Amino acid sequence: MMTVSPYRSSIDARYPRVFILFSSALAKESKLDGRIFLVILLAVYFLTIAISSSPYDTWASRGVLQTSWPLTNEPISFGDLYHVLSCGECNQLKYNVYLENPCDPLERLFMYPRIWLLPAELGFNRNHSAFLGFGLALIFFITFLRLIQRLNYVEALLYGILACSPAVILGVERGNADILIFVLLAWSIALMNRGAATSVASYGLIFLSAILKLYPV
Questions:
Q1: Is 180 a residue whose pLDDT tops 60?
Q2: Residue 67: HSE in the Cβ half-sphere, 13 Å Cα cutoff
Q3: Most buried in the list 58, 128, 203, 205, measured by CB within 10 Å?
Q4: Are 202 and 184 a contacting pair, CB within 8 Å?
Q5: Cβ-Cβ contacts under 8 Å for 7 (sequence gap 6 or more)
Q6: Any idea which of 83-92, 100-109, 144-153 has the lowest mean pLDDT?
Q7: What does the alpha-carbon distance between residue 96 and residue 209 come to, in Å, rounded to a whole number?
Q8: CB 156 within 8 A of CB 35
Q9: Secondary structure of the chain in the HEC alphabet?
């Protein structure tokens, strides 16, 4: 007669069977890297949004890539990034953007450290918000995939749900500063303790993050 260990019996008594099956699924290795499945999930998610949009309102009506400001009807790509670039543009025009910002449709004042005005010094303005926003979103998702390492299919499904959650998608859609901070801190972790040069680069990224947003440290 097969005997059941007291330890296994205690686990079965304490946790529902669904929990045990779920834990086993998380521990099971898959033949292929689950990140491939995760990329497919993300592609399906964004393609679904694109296909479900009509040829006339496209992405704008969904608020994924463009938003029309209620007071101006001006199409805005990646609203938070657009705001930063508009501040840099007005700063070039000698406005004190901490007090006034006529370059922004809603005249939102600048509320970041002055380092965020540097892109305007390099020639970037509001017209580059879509290009820079797409680039930032792409780098964010590549960094996300690099950070989580190899997955099985169940883990990929869970990470897909997290990656498509409202909080993450809102940050991506807005081109929010937190997306850039996440990228910098993620790569600082990846570079840490891999040698003297990479450690210096890692601490440099943390320092840059602190300058950009103050709170990462």
A1: yes
A2: 18
A3: 205
A4: no
A5: none
A6: 144-153
A7: 24
A8: yes
A9: CCCCCHHHHHHHHHCCHHHHHHHHHHHCCCCCCHHHHHHHHHHHHHHHHHHHCCCCCCCHHHCCCEEECCCCCCEEECHHHHHHHHHHHHHHCCCCCCCCCCCCCCCCCCCCCHHHHHHHHCCCCHHHHHHHHHHHHHHHHHHHHHHHCCCCHHHHHHHHHHHCCHHHHHHHHHCCHHHHHHHHHHHHHHHCCCCHHHHHHHHHHHHHHHHHHCCCC
Smallest Cα–Cα separation from 173: which of 69, 49, 48, 78?
78
What's the Cα-to-Cα distance from 142 to each of 13, 44, 135, 182, 206, rounded to whole Å?
Answer: 42, 17, 11, 12, 19
How many C-beta atoms lie closer than 10 Å to residue 67's C-beta?
20
Tokens read off for 207? 């320092």
Confidence of residue 84 (pLDDT cuts 50, 70, 90): very high
- Residue 67 phi, psi (nearest 5): -135, 135
User: 101: which 2 tokens?
Assistant: 């910002």
Q: What tokens does 13 get?
A: 């008594």
Are residues 109 and 98 in contact, defined by beta-carbon separation less than 8 angstroms?
Answer: yes
Residue 92: both structure tokens together: 């070039």
- Packing angle between helix 79-92 and helix 129-148, nearest 10 degrees? 130
**Through-space distance between the first and last CA atoms of the chain, rounded to whole angstroms:** 60
CA dihedral 158, 159, 161, 166 (to 10 degrees): 140
